[in-house]
Design a protein that fits this description.
Six copies of one chain form a homohexamer. The first copy, chain A, has 210 residues and is α+β, with helices and mostly antiparallel strands. The first copy, chain A, has four helices and eleven strands, in the order H-E-E-E-E-E-E-E-E-E-E-E-H-H-H. Chain A has helices at 3-18, 174-179, 185-192, 196-206, and strands spanning 52-53, 68-73, 87-93, 98-103, 109-115, 118-123, 129-134, 139-142, 148-152, 158-164, 172-173. In chain A, strand 6 (118-123) and strand 7 (129-134) form a beta hairpin. At the A-E interface, helix 1, strand 1, strand 3, strand 5 and strand 7 of A face helix 1, strand 1, strand 3, strand 5 and strand 7 of E. Chains A, B, C, D, E, F: It is found in: Secreted, Extracellular space, Apoplast. Chains A, B, C, D, E, F: One of its GO terms (cellular component) is apoplast. Chains A, B, C, D, E, F: This is Germin-like protein. Chains A, B, C, D, E, F: One of its GO terms (molecular function) is manganese ion binding.
C-alpha cells in the first residue's frame, strides 16, 4: 500500500474520531457539577489509571457504632463513572454489624454477597416488607428511593458489593437524618410520633443538636 | 376551492395524523403497568373528560391521627398524566395537622400554599436541614427521594397543592414503613437504634405486627 | 457511648455525605446553561431561602390586551428547580381574560383552578379538540408541545396554578410568534393562509415589523 | 476442535444471547402503545425486511392546496424505529409548494436538502425568528416543539429528507389545528385575535366546523 | 387510640399506597417486552423471593474454548431488575481464560475483581486503548458500547462481578458476530479486510456458515 | 390600541420569554463538554447561520483504502444539534466502496439512499444477521451499538445520508480499533482468535503498532 493512501486513511480516522471523543466523560471535580454530572476532563489528558479505582480493595473500618462501613466508589471518589449511570460501593459488616435503615434518593441498588451471611430487606411504597437472608453469591435488588437495610446475620464478618443505577446515588441514613443534625426536637416529634425523650437521647448519641 | 383538492388535503391530514396520535397516552388501568407507565387507551375512545379530574376539589377528611389528608391525583386516580412526567396532590391540614416525615421515591415535589401557614422542610443527603415557614402563595421545592414534612404552623386550616415530577411519585411515610407493617420489632430496633418498647408502642398505634 | 466511637460515626457520615451532596442542583444563573440545566451552586452556600420562592404570591398585572398574566417560577426565577424536571406558574385572568393559544415546547402542563371558572382546551396531533369548563379544584392536563388556551368564562376574576414537567418549559404564544417579531409578512401569509392585510393589522397591534 | 467443546460454546452463546435479544423492539402495532412505544414483535419472527422501508422512495402527491407533501416513516409506517428515538420523513415541494407553519410536539428535526432550494425557518420561545434559504446539501435544525415552516423558494421542485429525535414526533399543522376541526369560532377568535370572518373563511377552506 | 381513628389511618394509608405500588416493576416475562422493559407482575403476587437471585452463586462452566464463562443476571434471568437501569453478571476465568473482545450495545459496565488477576481493557471512539492489570478489589469502568475484553493474567482462576447500567445490556461477542453465524464470507472479508481463508477457518471453529 | 397597553404587552412577552430562551442550546465548543452536552452559547449571540450547516453538501474524498468517506455533522461540526438528540452524516461510496464493520456506541442510525445501490446490514446481540440490498429512497435502521456495514453493491457511486439518535453518536470502526492503534498484538490475538501474523499484517496496513 502506498503512503499517500495510508495518510488518507489516517485522516479519515482522525476527523471521524474528533467528533466522537465523548463516549465517556471523566469528571473534572474542580468544576461545578451540573444536573447531568460534572464537566469532562480533556480526553487527551486521560490514561488507563483514570478508569480504574483501587479504593474498594481495602476493608472499611468497622470499629464504630454500627460495626459496619460503607466505602463508596461514587463519582466523587471514582470520576470515571460520571455520566455513565452506574457506581459501586463496598459494604463491610463485622459480626453483628448493621447498615441502618437508609435510602438512596437517586438510584436503585443491587447487592452481591461475597462473604458471610446478610439479612437484607426493604419496604415498598405499598408498605409491604420484603426481607431475606442472603448467602454467598446471592444478589438482591433494592428499588430506587425505598427504605432498606443490611444486617450481618451470621457468625463471621460479611462482605458485599453494591451497584447503583447512578454515578451519584446519594445516601440518606434515617437515624442521622432525624437525630444527627440541627432539626429541632419539636419538629422531629411532630413528624415521627416519637417522644421528645427518645429523640433527645438519640440526638445525644448521633451528634444532633436542637 | 374545488372539492377534489379539499379531499386531498383531508387525506394528507389524516395520514399524517395517524402517525402522531400518541402525543399523550391516557392510562388503561385494566392492563398491566410497564416501567414507562400503563398502556394507552385508544385515542378514539377519549373525550375531554379524560383530561380533567375533579377529585381534588373536595377537602380531604382530616379527622384522623395526623389531622391531615393527602388526596392524590396520580396516574391511578387521573389516568391522563400517564407517561407525562407530572402529577398533583392536594394537602389539607387542619389546625395542628401534620404530614409526617416521608419520601417520594420517584419524584421531586413543589408545594404551593393556597391558604394558611405551613412549616415545611427536608433533609439533604449531606444531612443538612432546610425548613421554613411558608405563607399563602409561597412555593417550596423538595428534591427527589429526600425525607420531608409539612406542618400546619398557623391558627387556621391550611391548604396546599403539591406537584410531582412523575405520574407515579410513590409515597413512603416513615412511621408506617417502620411501624405499620409486619417488619419484626427486632429488625426495626437493629436498624433504627430505637428501643423495642418504643417500637412496640408505635406498632400498636399504627397497626403493625411482629 | 464513648467519644472515640462518636467521632468515628461522624467520620462515616461525612465521607458518605460528601459523595452525595448533589441530590439537588440549585442553578448558578451566572454560568452558561447546559442541555441538562445550569451548573450547580455550591451546596455549602445554600440556605432554606434557596428552596422557597414568594414571587407567585402576588397577582400578576392583568391591565393589558389579554386581561391576563402569566407569572412564571421557572428556573430563571426559581433556581432551585434546576434539573428537577418540574416548575410552576401562576395564571391570573381578569374578567374576560384570555391566555391566548400557545405551546410549551418542552413540557406537559397540569392546571389547577384555585378561584373562578376557566374554559380550557387543547388540540391534539390527530387534530381533535378537547375543551371543558373548569371549576374551583378541577385539574386539567395539557400534553407536551400541543396548542392550548385558557379563558376566564365566569363573571369574576380567576386564578390558577400550572405545573410543568420541566424546569424550563418554554412558552410560545402563537400570536406573538406570528405577528410580534420581524418575520416578513410574505412568509406569514404563505405559511398560514392568512391575508396580508390581516397579518399587517395584527403585526401593528402586537409590535411586529416586516 | 472436538464436538463437545463446540457445543459448549454454542450453549454459552445461546444463553447469553437469550438475555439480550432486545437491542431493538420492532413495534407490534396490533397491541396498545405505551409511553415508551409499542410492545415488541418476537425477535424470532423478524427478517431483514422488518428493518427496511421503501415508502420514502416515491414522491408524495403534491396536487393539493399546499403543493407539497409530507411522507412519514414514523413508527406507524416503519415499526422498526420503535423505541430507538429516531424517525424520518420525506418532503416534496412542487414549485411554490409550502409546508405550512407547524410543530412536532415531541421531537427536534434536522432537514437535508436533496434537490432544489428551500426557505426554512423557525421561531424561538424568545420570539426570535431564524430563517434562511437552503441549497442542495445544506442541513438545518428545528429545535423541539417550535413553530417552523419550509417553502420552495426556487424555480424547480424541491426534495428534502427530515430526521426526528423520536420514533413518533407528532405533527401539528397550525392551520388545521385552528381551522380544520370543530373548535368553535368564538374560541378561535378569543385565543388568536383573528376576526370571526377570517376564521370562518379558513374553516370553510380547511374543513372545520363550529 | 380509639378504633374509628385507627381505621381512618388505615384508609389513608391504603388509598395513598394504591397510587404508588409501582416503585418497582418485576418483569412478567410471559408478556411481550416494550422499549422500557417488560410489563409488571402484579405487586400482590410478589414475595421477597422475587427480589433475590441465587444464580450467580455457582461458578460458570469454563471447560470451553475460551476457558471462561459469563453468567448473566439480566432481566431474563432476574426479572426484578426490570425497569431499574441496572443488572449484574458473574465472570469466571480459568487459568488463561479470556472473555473475548465484545461490546454491550446498551450499557456501561463496572467490573470488580473478587479473586485472581485480570488484564482488562477497552478501545475508545477516538481509537485510544486503555488496558490495565487489575488485582483483587480493583474496579474498572467500560463505557457504553465500546469494544472491551478481560483476560486472566494470573496463575490462578479469577472471579469478577460486573454491573451494568441497564436491565438488559446486550452482549455482542465480536468473533461470534463475525464468524459464528450465516454472514457470507464475502461480506466479512469486504468489511473487515480479513482474508477469506482466515474467515473460513474461524467460521469452522465458531459454527458459522456461508 | 393605545400605547400604554402595547407596552404592557411587550413587557409580558419579554418577561415570559426570558424564562424560556433555552429551547435550544447551541454548543460553545470552547468550554468543556458535560454528560448532557456542551454548555450553550448565549442565545443573543446567535443568528440563523448557527442553525444551518453546509458541510454535507460536498462529496467526501473517496480516494482511500475503503473507496468511501463518512462526513459527519455531529455536535463537533454542527454545534446546533447539541442536546437535541439528533445528528447527521453523509456517506459517499465510490464503486466498490465500503464503510467497514463499525458501531456507534451511543446512537441508533437510520440510512436513506439518495443515489446508487447499497448492501447494508447489521448483526444483533442474538447473533442474527440482517442484511439487504437498498435502492434509491430505501431507508434502513441500525439499532444502537450493533456492528453494521454498508457496501456499494452497484456499478455507480452511491450516496446516502444517515441520521443518528444522538448529537454525538461516536464511531468505532472495527479494524481501526483492533489494528490501528497500540493495542499489543498478543492482546489482539488472545481476544479475537486471529493469528499473530494476520494481526501484524493488518497493523502494518492500518497504522497500528505493538
Amino acid at each position: 500500500m502506498s503512503l499517500p493512501i495510508l495518510l488518507t486513511v489516517a485522516l479519515l480516522l482522525t476527523s471521524s474520531a474528533y467528533a466522537s471523543v465523548n463516549d465517556f466523560c471523566v469528571a473534572d471535580l474542580q468544576q461545578p457539577d451540573t444536573p447531568s454530572g460534572y464537566p469532562c476532563k480533556k480526553a487527551t489528558s486521560l490514561t488507563e489509571k483514570d478508569f480504574v479505582y483501587s479504593g474498594l480493595g481495602v476493608a472499611g473500618n468497622t470499629s464504630n457504632i454500627i460495626s459496619a462501613a460503607v466505602t463508596p466508589a461514587f463519582v466523587a471518589q471514582f470520576p470515571a463513572v460520571n455520566g455513565l449511570g452506574i457506581s459501586l460501593a463496598r459494604l463491610d459488616l463485622a459480626v453483628a454489624g448493621v447498615i441502618p435503615m437508609h435510602t438512596h434518593p437517586g438510584a436503585s441498588e443491587v447487592l452481591v454477597v461475597i462473604q458471610g451471611t446478610i439479612c437484607a430487606g426493604f419496604i415498598s411504597s405499598a408498605n409491604t416488607v420484603y426481607f431475606k437472608t442472603l448467602f454467598k453469591g446471592d444478589i438482591m435488588v433494592f428499588p430506587q428511593g425505598l427504605l432498606h437495610f443490611q444486617i450481618n446475620s451470621g457468625d463471621d464478618p460479611a462482605l458485599a458489593f453494591v451497584s447503583f443505577s447512578s454515578a451519584n446515588p446519594g445516601l440518606q441514613i434515617l437515624d442521622y437524618a432525624l437525630f444527627g443534625n440541627e432539626l429541632p426536637t419539636e419538629l422531629v416529634t411532630k413528624t415521627t410520633f416519637l417522644d421528645a425523650a427518645v429523640v433527645k437521647k438519640l440526638k445525644s448519641v448521633l451528634g444532633g443538636s436542637g
